[in-house]
Amino acid sequence: RVRQMRYLILIAVFVSGCAIAPIFEPVFEPVFKPAPPPKLTPEIVARQFEAAAFDDGLGLADPVLMRWTEPVKFFFLSESWGHALPYSIDINRINKRIAEAAGTAVDVVLDFDQANLTVTLLPRRLFYQAIKRLRKKLPNAHQIAATNACFAALSQKQKDGTIPAAAIVIATDISEDDRRHCIPEKFYQIMGLPGDSCVYRPSLVCSQDTVLELQPADELLLAVLYDNELKPGMTKDEALPLVLELIKKRWPEFIKDE
């Protein structure tokens, strides 16, 4: 029996004058035993970075490097704090690692007006209501709501690459393992790495993996994305030569060579 649920990765980028576009990345169980993953190298990690940062499936003519330039402050939307407790424990744990890798604060706030990220906890039967404002661009919204356990939406200014706001919605009536997979996956994506790639595995950016924690190479991707030598708004051609250099430079911080 396939225990794994299909997830929606809905990274809706709001660009001035541009339409909203979703990414759908369902998870499928392989029908054959995959080959052993290749040995991790800086070049392989650089290819994963390229896909996660630039190949977001949105069809933008000129995708640019995206990241937050202000601390991430998230606000819980839930029936009660008690209801949100299991989620808050998992979120605090993963956000500590994200903040350490990225070198930027990711903290909960108690005032909705101070938040630039909302984390909404809902039963799956209410998912459609959470995305109905995108209905014109999502004709299969009912199917999405019925078959996915979590999604995220990312607001991006296309020209300068800064992320001013984001939203995450997670189902409350899912298994503990599903919850513990959804949380790191979605928080990782809204940091500016929404694309899917399986160049190295296991990884949070590989839709074929169900991992519950950031992998060392995933942390390296975040550290490189938020390195001061990279700037939001860089094109792929501008960023990638620097990315490989930074991966090699910071490799010993995150990767233990065999």
Structure in words:
This protein is an alpha/beta fold. It is 35% helix and 11% strand. The protein has seven helices and five strands, in the order αβαββααββααα. The chain has helices at residues 42-54, 81-102, 127-131, 141-147, 176-189, 216-225, 236-254; strands spanning 72-77, 106-108, 117-122, 150-155, 165-171. Strand 1, helix 2 and strand 2 (106-108) form a beta-alpha-beta unit. The longest helix has 22 residues, at 81-102. The protein starts with 41 loop residues before the first helix and ends with a helix.
What is the terminal separation in angstroms? 35 Å
Strand order of the largest sheet: 2-1-3-5-4
Unreliable runs:
1-29
What portion of residues is helical?
25-40%
Blueprint (SSEs and pairs):
Blueprint (H helix, E strand, L loop, with lengths): L41 H13 L17 E6 L3 H22 L3 E3 L8 E6 L4 H5 L9 H7 L2 E6 L9 E7 L4 H14 L26 H10 L10 H19 L4
Parallel strand pairs: 1-2, 1-3, 3-5
Antiparallel strand pairs: 4-5
Attribute tags:
5 strands, alpha/beta, 258 residues, five-stranded mixed sheet
